[in-house]
Fold these 3 entries.
Entry 1:
Amino acid sequence: MKPFLLSVLFLCLAACAADRRPMPTLTVSKDATGAKGCEAVYPQGRWQFVHSIDFSMQDGSGGTVIGVTSLAGNELTCVLMTIEGFTLFEAAYQEGKGLAVQRAVPPFDKPAFAEGLMRDVQMIFLAPSTKNMRYGRSADNVPVCRYAGIDGRIIDIRPAVDGCWQIQTYTADLIMDRAIVGQSCRKEGDSLIPEHLELRGFGQTGYTLKMTLIQAENLGAVSE
Amino acid sequence: MKQLCLFLTLTFFLPALAPANESAPQVQDSPVAQAPIQLHSVKADFVQEKHLKILARPIISTGTFTFQAPQSLRWEYQKPLHSILLMHGGKVKKFIERDGQLTEEKGMQLDSMQVVLAEITNWLDGRFTDNAMFTVSFPDKKTIQLTPKDKGIAALISTIELKLGEQAGLLDAVTIFEGPDSSTRLTFTNRVLNQEIPASLFTDR
């Protein structure tokens, strides 16, 4: 029995190791004009998006919900509802004020869910601070904007991959914890809006969100 | 999640409020009881409008609804996302289109849906005041208002308003109020009563 358990343990450790994706090296460019493309990843002004969201967890469970995201500068509101229209979750995030959950129906009422969801939504819709940004190319010669957060986390934006964009985030240990792939982008003003988004969360609670755009509406500039 | 299933089931069964059983006791003061008709089946198209404070415009969904007494249902959304809920012979299934294919949604709490089903059949029998879940009021001849008695459900749904149509027992619209800034309105059109419906419609996607 012991050898069997050891084999299982070894396989598990091997699987975990395989899922740990280290941050690739970046060759920094002297000319950073290409970094402007990274700004187009994030919608500017006031926007409203409606997506269908298929979520699947590592254990095989999952489901489909409708997600509404409202953007106004650094303010972000997110609602999840069933196809039948029942509101499961509603929360708002504002820079400096933090997260405020207005409604959360079980099993969406756990604080970790709210924090995780809003972090994902911020990652997709809110541009990171440009204070510590470096622009360059990855080993596969793809343009990358690399943002370093004060907490040690790293965000890589690839603004031009197959006509759309990709985002990867790394922990302070420089291990990938989120990857977003945008597909079928369309240009709306200065922004590139993807028809499809796939977000993968790595680690112990791995999950995948497949988002399909139902409606995107530009509501104009943010009022002062 | 039980409460969510309750809500869904309530929504699904509301479009036809005509009695399915002539011998069932009727409430004399309710608008439904004034002109009961015997209901075997009903088909209708519906438009669903989801209103939220943050939405510049409501989210519009469209689909079709088919009910056959005593407990068979097909509730199908065509837009914006194709999905089908089927209830027949005590079994409940839900399918959602993913990557161009209708796949069964697993993990639904079907037991709680079946429990609620029993409650709903009371409504289909025209029993509106004798209700363990809702306080029922009739603001006018065309309106039935349902207010949850249970605090847990009341935290999720504040009121359900049923608007009766010209034909006795049929609904024009249902509005579910979750709170002051959130509601879902279902409007029914092209209703067809008591047509023969094959059982396969309630079992096959």
Entry 2:
Amino acid sequence: MTNRYIVDTTLRDGEQSPGIAFSIREKITIAKTLDTLGVARIEAGTPAMGREECRAFEKIKLTCQQAKIIGWNRMNRSDISQSIGCGADIIHVCVPASDLLIREKLRTTRSQVLKTLSACAAAIHAEKRELTIGLEDASRADWDFVVLLIETAQQLGATTLRFSDTVGIMSPSLCKATISRIPDNIDIEVHMHNDLGMAVANSIQGLRCGAKYVDTTLFGIGERAGNCNLEHLLIATQGQLDFGINLDELQWHQADLKPIIYKNNPGRMPDRISAH
Amino acid sequence: MAKLLKANKRKRGRQMVTIIDRTLTTFNTSGMTGQDLNHFCDLLFTCGVNKIELTPDLVNRLNFPLTAAGLKQWLGERRFFLTRILPESLASAGPGTKEPKALWKLEPNELVEKNIPVGKLHSCHHQKIRITGLEDLMTRDYSEVFKALLDSGIDTLDLCPGNHHHCATAIALEWLSAGGQSISCGFANHHHFPPLEEVLMGLKLSQPDLFTGDLSVLSELRDLYEKLSGQPVGKMKAIIGTDIFKVESGIHVDGVLKNPNTYEPFSPQSVGNQREIVLGKHSGRQSLLYKLNDSQLSESAAHSILKHIKFRCTQLGRNLSDRELRTLAREVQNDKQIYC
């Protein structure tokens, strides 16, 4: 069986799901469980959100024994300083890759994106932290710019490149064709959303085509229709891919975490038929 | 990326495919009224289904005129497909004529279901086959499997992959992309068939010029499905979940308010839903200004209100309602006036 690694983003992208909000104690409980299960990397939050998030982050860092803790950041020096200050093992910088996001959301240009990214990378290396770079909305980006961003990521010393299907529009064949084209001199991580119900299938294709890491959340929580569901991914890849996580143990622990994750949102619980 | 999408489209060619819905075959239909049944079928056809699979019992409830006049014996225990026909005479009416309402007709379902290894297909003598199972296809070289199926010489080949591995939509769409002509689905992952709404949206996004269904009826179909099946649909269910267009995080609200395409793969209206900006732990200033409709709110007041919102939402584990927000905003601003 091939070894691959889970990057769990329940505490960052998962918590961004409307109506889901964790207290510090709840975040620590979830992180501790993920660490015990064998999750390789835990994206514990966005320290730039404020003091509470930083406190949670610091405690998670102290609690987890195995997993590396990722701090998620916009392409912004002040956000990055917060993550460094919280003691994150990995500083992840999210870079809008599609012209749609660059033009409409950031109201900037491709060249400015590259400049800002370089400045962010320098700040991270100055503090001797591991840098990973995420290409937001890569599935709708111009391929030439994606290639330029990948080359830049390598030059800037990023250890991992996250390829994000931010609005969940990819198909398995498109995933295969795309991920296979990324040069193998940087570790690839795939981040798939479930808008068309294909997050698990797309993640599998990404992994089969060379991705070393895959992003998941507990119960598949996340924006809109959610992210790749960890349990579903393990079910679908049983006997084929080894993430170092036992499915039975995950299901056992998920039962305990369900009341924390859904609190006052029983309508969102996945035991309803057809929840993602 | 756009080049790749175009290449896939070229490969697929311009062909119409058959979408079969099987939802009704697994319902407990004892309490279902004829009106609801008719409405459900009508909505399925509207959203792009070509054939609806029915049991003899359901056929009886549709009140076809011939049923009472001896069709019952012909029906027997077999299953049927309900399809739509547009009478040519009406369809070819001149410009300005009101579009004719399609008529329904029955045809026998002659598909034989097989859950067998693809390699053994050559031993099948049936010329109309529905392949079921294939749950683990995504972890195998599925394009080779599809090639073997398409080269098997079988006349009519329908695929109904199981969804126990949560990959049925992907398998269905890849099958059609590879040249498959027929796929069987169930609404809202019913009975672990490929979720109909996901397959239809996948087709709409990949073949917008060929897809003729109207997916804006999906919300109505969901409500009727919940009533008929007695099973609630998950609020985050892809395509039809009631909450999938709620936006909370500051980054996403900022993007969506500038241009909804930034964080929406398709418009809420296209599936009969609505976008809603909600306030919670991850809200930013833009969301607050939008919700309070108050562009004059000072930086410090906004910061203070947001702090309270984040605290309350973390405690409650849910979003704040508009009423709760107004109360909280009033209280925070009053406090500021008293203590500042």
Entry 3:
Amino acid sequence: MSDVVSTGSTTRVSLTVNGVRHDLDLPARRLLSDALRHDLRLTGTHVGCEHGVCGACTVLVDGAPMRSCLLFAVSLDGAEITTVEGCRSADGGMGPVQQAFHECHALQCGFCTPGFITTITAFLDDNPAPTRDEAREAVSGNLCRCTGYVNIVSAVERAAELRREPTP
Amino acid sequence: MTTRMVGEPVKRVEDPRLVTGNGRYLDDLGHDAFEVAFVRSPHAHARVVDVDVTDALDVEGLVAIYTYEDLVADEEEHGTRVAQALPLLIPHPTLTHGRTQHALANGEVNHVGEAIVMVVASDRYAAEDAVERIRVDYEFLTPIVGVEAARAAEHLVHDDVPGNVAARMVQETGDADAAIDAAPHRLELDLAIERSASMPMEGKGVHARWDADDESLTVHTSTQTSTSVRQAVAAKLNLPVDRVEVVTPDVGGGFGVKIVHPWPEEVLVPWAALRLGRPVKWTEDRREHFVSSAHERGQLHHVRVGYDDEGRLLGLSVKFWHDHGAYIPYGLIVPIITSTQLLGPYKPGAYRVEFESLYTNTVIVTPYRGAGRPQGCFVMERTMDAIAADLGLDRALVRERNFIQPDEMPYDQGLIFQDGRQLLYDSGDFPGSLAKLKELVGWDDFAAYREQARAEGRRVGIGMACYVEGTGVGPYEGGHIRVETDGTVVVSTGLTTQGQGHQTMLAQIVADELGVPFERIRVTTGDTRRFKYAVGTFASRTAVMSGSAVAVTARAVREKALRIASDALEAAVEDLEIVDGNVRVKGTGENGASVDLGAVAVLSNPLRYAFDEAAKRATQFAAPADPDKPPVAEGESPGLEASQFYSPPRSTFANGMHAVVVETDPDTADIKVLRYCVVHDCGTLINPMIVEGQIHGGVAQGVGGALYERMEYAPDGQLLNASFMDFLMPYASEVPEVEIDHLVTPSPLNPLGVKGAGEAGVIPGAAAIAAAIEDAEGITIRRMPISPSELFHLRLENQEAGS
């Protein structure tokens, strides 16, 4: 049929996600969030608003926090991407930001948490010893409906401490 | 001695999974399922004249398109009830004109966002391609938007509902009008609260899989009540309930909106899975959540109050109008709660309340955290402040003079609450709470601070608000506990979890009651394969209901373990204790004879076959047994397990008081919360860390509802701010630090002495912040939320009135 509405051809894209290279054939309109979640099945990245406001889908693209719901996967050929799964410690347990969230009760339902974890990871790379005001500012682009943010701000401070501690 | 777990700020067992990206929320399931998108009405009120799907048929990946006519045909062919209106979940005698929606519109749409056509396709992209190409012809009807338009009733939402009134309810204790007329002082106030919404970070979602070989349906849904969804889906699809199971995966927040059921999608997605023989999934997007889930809070209130020279209430009469949107599936719960709980910690004198619940062409209204209480609290607390202003009295003093006293508990307010039971406060110490709050915030010193700030050109103000919250409503919850032969303790309860840490909190209770290490306990919630009888998670009821249920269940397991162990240890039951998962003779310490609960579990189940090492001990030739007695004693059953239920006579009443300090900008009218203080009484605290987390979250929603969040409906019924860009939920930059003090007056109604804590934080937010702004500005605040622009215009109006 000539008037079939097709999703069109696919494009080969190479993404290195959490250190592992993946070659994917994706339609041009496939969002990075969908490619991560449904093609690579890394479902830790969550989608809360599909328009870049809530920050739940935040991943690190070449180290910088970006909203994966606003990015086309094919535009990221060759990029290094870190998701919440990539913020774990080397042994697969909780990484420092994740550990801090656990210790400070900085999550309730956990849906927004992955976006906070990636955002804070990038923030602490830039500012390893933030003040409480700086910590609050750092998480003020992510929405959480459960915690009232009090304990998330504390978790930023605690994560900074944990990152400074020598690993056993 | 084992450390007691209840009362400790135990870190959550849920966290390691959730923080590492290993949670399993609805859209994390079913990567290969067909996906659903809907054609939703862009009009608030219209007749659907024609649906033309021709252009959509050639979309690559399209699987099926369904309209209301297909649901009717299915009823005729298969005896399903998918075409019938969705159930009216909570009927009430005064709800004389209850109307509910159809899963797909039956010829008429009554709000923007109502589903008309369901498209199933290979994935969501293809489904939305098809949706875009379906054309619907409408015949426009006049939209009714807002309480005033509904009340005027020049046009009707539903042709067969005169006046747009679904219900009119009156409750009365004494002759309020006569008491007010006879009072030395009288006031009348008009008070308004606008719409907000639960707005969980994860919207709704449903995944369904039909197993044709087994003739069974498994539904995963992001719900607050899996057991009731199961019954509803079975009834709608004409399946034996026995062939339907509903599992709640991780849920990304609920706050009330997910207690409503079955949502149209909870019927349609399983139905499509059944007809197509393939897994089908729908994941709600954010815009869908705004325009097709539920809102709350919108009410107008008129208050008449009479009081004496001391500010004591003599009579209170409140009439209010509740905008419940296009349909009323959840009944009158929200306005009933407003009408009863607005009394708070006070004795109102004679009281009369009357409300009308009105249809409008907007999204339906169902409980959102607080559920009518924030409005009620706003009404009562604004009234208290107005009385104080009128008499020139301290606002705290007026409240104190109207408090129910501790020695008056239990206190019967003489009304019927939302559970159909008496509004009877079981415990509380309101003067004690107020004293703590005044000290925490520095109430008595604030006047000096305000003056000092004034001298610096700053405007600061303080406000307070008090509430009483009926929590833990019935009818019941249950628990099942089984000790496995390896000593693992498996606990399940039927209600669901949306982030409250139930796995942790319930394990703390079981650890204490059973005497087992916390780490050995595994808790499952909201899975009908595991527990089939439950009500759901709402009304701050899990700690009270399921907490009590697993406590009494653990006691039953403990008794059984002691009976079995008394044979093995040749000691009387009364002489035994369970410590760290070992049954031992009291006083013998760790070196005495003992048997671990895993071994007791083995002994509880007499066996013929030694399928593993542990099982050998329970086989028929392994141990001496009385040959004249049956292997399973009379009245016993195999397995170290029990199931028990908890059903209280009525709700238990938590309470709290908040004080807020705000600063308003003299030029821009920007409003900043400087301090937020909470005194909270939810009885015994099971896990103070979790309780404080609940308060923090509630306070943030209270601040949002007071200063930022509102559903902006245009007169034509378009929701103008249906995105996170425009509907302003607070970020970390808008939420203050929260200072908390606890008062503990245990509930006498349940074995743990607990009261609910989930909703409390949100209730007094709008009332306390309004009072603080009023104090800073000297301008009367009668509507919330309030934006800087609105405050600025209030200043102008006030200046004009003054000049």
